[in-house]
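Human: I would love a firmer grasp of how sequence relates to backbone shape in proteins. Could you go through the record with me and say what the backbone is doing? Here is the record:
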Amino acid sequence: MSVTRGNLQRRTVRAFAAVIVVVLSLAISATAVADTGVKAERADLLARAMAEGRALDLTVHSPSMNRDVPVRVLVAADTSVPRPTLYLLNGSGGGEGDAHWFVQTDIVKFAADKNVNIVVPMSGGYSYYTDWVKVDPNFGINKWTTFLTRELPPVIDQKVNGSGANGIAGISMAGTSVLALAESAPDLYRTVAAYSGCAETSTRLGQLAVQAVVGERGDVRNMWGPVGGPGWRDHDPVINAHKLRGKAIYVSSGTGLPGRHDRLANEAIDGDVAEYARIVGVGGPLEAATYYCTQNLDKRLKQLRIPATFDYEPGTHSWPYWQDQLAKSWPMLERALTR
């Protein structure tokens, strides 16, 4: 029996969906993490940056959520004039554990000579950084779009002499969120970069990706209403891709096949066979799913004749690749923010 292209695509989606369901049931984080020595070195660099005033820990009150939100800021190297701001979001954990930019990457060292303020919210786990339509029994009030687009920017501009030029970037869960945030606040962000995020929320694969993140921590119906309903289409970056016109756009994904960081001798794995199997066996299929979503966004932007940079390479769903992608996307981000 012959297999049509449409049947093949449907089978591919079903295969990816099956992987996501398995990851949800196992509740496994797929990302490689830094070893103890590297963590200690990065903590020391951060402590020195704090002591020198190059890094700040702020507590910003959110009226819409009636809560205080911890926010970490890497201050621009030269503060003699107002500087632009890049909002850099963490993945599914929201920075509430060790899976965040300051533990898992060299962000403090990277930012030391940059004339851009880098702002990282250290909360918002499993929320998709969106405004939930209902109060959730576990999460309470989630109004992250309101916080990030309306409440936080004026505070940052006042605290660190921001210029009002803003960009936004994020990984994994936030790779979806930053695209939706840029679409929802078209006048706020000049540029957006999404690393390893599924750019769909209204397709079956996109819905399962969201459900896998939210999982048993919250009721996903409290986020955008019934699964598959209008709210899910309203937040779908592919459907709303036309709203990205005029922005500098960078989107990346690994293919899911093992890449240069997926070797036993590499820093995050350090010869640990079980860790290698976890990263390749779970992080590989997860990244293959984001690769599929990313290609759909790529096609849609081409249809709309909206310029964007897409970067694909072998690799899994893990931090070493996101550190690389921040560096690769930086020239584009910096140009857009300083023009």
